[in-house]
Amino acid sequence: MSEFENEILRMPLLALRGLSVFPGMLLTFDVERPSSIGSLDIASKADQLIFLATQKDLTADMPEEDDIYHVGTVCRIRQQIRQPKATICRVLVEGLYRAEAVSIDTEPKAYMADIVKLSDKQERVGEAKMEALLRNCMGLFEEYLRLNPEMVTEQILNVLANPDPGYVADYISQHVRFSIEDKQSLLECLYPSRRLALLSKLLTSELNIMALEKELSDATQEQMSQNQREYYLREEMKIIQAELGEDGLLDDIGEYRERIKALPVDEEIREKLLKELGRLQKQPFGSSEAAVLRGYLDACLEIPWGKYDEETTDIAKARKILDEDHFGLEKVKERVLQYLSVRQLAPDVKGGLLCLAGPPGTGKTSIAMSIARATGRKLVRVSLGGVHDEAEIRGHRKTYIGSMPGRIMNGIIQAKSCNPLIVLDEIDKLGSDYKGDPSAALLEALDPEQNSTFRDNFLEIPFDLSNVFFVTTANSLDTIPRALLDRMEVIELSSYTDEEKLQIAKNHLIPKQRKKHGLKASQLRISDDAVKEMIRSYTRESGVRVLEREIAAVCRKAAGGIAENEFKSLNVKQGKLESVLGPAKYKPDQIRVADEVGLVRGLAYTSVGGEVLDVEVAVVEGTGKLQLTGNLGDVMKESAQAALTYIRSRAYKLGIDPDFYKNKDIHIHFPEAAVPKDGPSAGITVTIALISALTGTPVRSDVAMTGEITLRGRVLPIGGLREKTMAALRAGVKTVIIPADNESDLEEIDQTVRAKLNFVPTDHVDKILDVALRFESEDSLCCTAEIPVQSERCAVRQ
């Protein structure tokens, strides 16, 4: 033990912030605090010795005694550097020995401490263990030097030059980046073996941390190197492309890639698009294939993936919109409101599929547009009239020049929504030829069980059409393929009655045309009677399209007169239409004054609604020829032959010469021969006309009839009863004979028509002879199999 071991020495104290110094080590640091400068001055004037201890709190500017560790190092000041007028002094000190402060005087001018020297303790440790501890610490220190490029590797030689355990521990502790607490623990440890063991533990922990830091640094460096490499390569590519005139391709490729990665689509679709992008990247400048691939990617990226319009669930609001746009059409409105009600209760329900069938001008396309407004969906109209190429629906293969997506996917792109309302207009007018059948291509698109993965030939990726609301329109269901028709919910829009046309004209057409022609309500007035006259004398249609044109003509007349100052306003009344629209185009069907033989009024259903169709039969002497004229179709000719065969089978009971088919020539004629006519519903009409002509019995002029005839005289049901009965009412008919199976259809007939007409349902011709024919006496009734007869012949009088 040294003679100064327990001697208390008083010397200046300098508190270090974030630093520690070990015995035998050199340390350079800056001094700025006045108290620290004062301590340096005291030491410099004495023996150059100063006690350095680390303060616990780095933020304390004037630390108290408890804020400073009491174990520190007595150092010799080797060098001081002070700049003129500078407040900072740089100091180089050398650690001499450990010491412990017994007391600390924290005067502001200079800190002083009473210290006691601390020497390493003697311990009983074998040389082998001590050698193992030394080697372990030196090995760890060497690894530390290797991982820390800032330190000089030759420092290991300083350790090897002095194998003293205490020196080795202090040297390594001074030069390794430990925390202040860990270094203070090493400084306070007076047993060299324990100090080496603690140092080994701290070095191992530090090496683990440094390994993790190096791993993170290497990964970051590798990523930066890769990014830098890609950057340099891209810059070189830009220079090369600029030389070749391709500058901008690389930017486009990057933009395409970012847009594809941002799409909310399945991985299958994303991989497909990235594959096509890779092909585009490999194409040479000016390649036609590159233009095709660009067009393909542009089309795919224009699709509104994941974008849906919010549907309205306000039923009252939807009903108001439908009623504002259209008068009547209750079935269509009810079906749309039912769909919205279901959507309100079950939001996950898919889109619908409606087919609106009816004559031209009945509002099929316009009600479809109103459905879009009422449901809150965007509208896309696709006209299918005259389309005869399957590629129009499914798209062309992108390998063809000028290829593009089909009309359905184009509509999705135009709507910028995945759930629009698509109107497929005139679906009954699709054609087919060697290029394919477009109606067959629509099978997948319109089938709710299949269209969730609809594939357009151009896009070649699946697209979900199940959320799309499809509305198709057609004038006739006969030309729509059965498989396609089976997928659609058909709602028939029948012809408008005159009263409905009047209301539509008053509430919709006249205000619309006034606004279109810049007229005010005070400048043009059209009375209800004038509108009715316009309907009867200037239009003959099931809808209101021609009526709207006639109203537009009236508006033009009014606008012209007002512009030329001929009048300030125009009031159109009944009887004055001829001066505005010219002579009447149609004369109202007038009921015949007298009953005539062989002339019967039938009822026909055409594409423009119902019409009255007269049938004339003339019987002359001859050799049994049957002549049919009037531009008849095969079905109508067969109906006439069936009627003739039925009459031959009932000749005796009808009071007709059984040999009439041998000695009489029969001519059946349908007037308006320029108009093609076909269908089975004129069978009963032809039968009554033949019976009237062969028996000479006149037909009632106020009776019209419709129905298909069989060889046994049965009357079969027909279609278009609503339109036919409206035509009968316009023609002044009082009684309408219909098939008994159509009696249930009377519920669908307009109540005005039903109230003014007398309907006679029948299932057999024999039962309505006394209704259709006017006999000479009231008891002359035709005999049937169920009605007893007084003689073998029917009581029809000649």
Summarize the structure in words.
The protein is α/β, with parallel strands linked by helices and 798 residues long. Helix content is 42%, strand content 18%. It has 27 helices and 26 strands. The longest helix is centred in the first third of the chain and has 53 residues, at 192-244. It is rod-shaped.
List the topology elements:
Layout: E1 8-16, E2 26-31, H1 34-45, E3 49-54, E4 71-82, E5 89-106, E6 111-118, H2 127-147, H3 155-161, H4 165-175, H5 180-188, H6 192-244, H7 249-261, H8 267-282, H9 288-302, H10 315-325, H11 330-345, E7 353-357, H12 364-375, E8 379-383, H13 391-394, H14 407-415, E9 421-425, H15 438-446, E10 454-455, E11 462-463, E12 469-474, H16 482-485, E13 489-492, H17 498-516, E14 524-526, H18 528-538, H19 545-563, E15 570-572, H20 577-581, E16 596-597, E17 599-606, E18 609-621, E19 626-629, H21 634-649, H22 651-654, H23 660-663, E20 664-669, H24 683-695, E21 698-699, E22 703-705, E23 708-709, E24 715-716, H25 721-730, E25 735-739, H26 751-756, E26 758-762, H27 769-772
Parallel strand pairs: 1-3, 7-12, 7-13, 8-9, 9-12, 14-15, 17-22, 19-20, 22-25, 25-26
Antiparallel strand pairs: 1-6, 2-5, 3-4, 4-5, 5-6, 10-11, 16-21, 17-18, 18-20, 23-24
Helix pairs in contact: 2-3, 2-4, 2-6, 4-6, 7-8, 8-9, 10-11, 10-12, 17-18, 17-19, 21-24
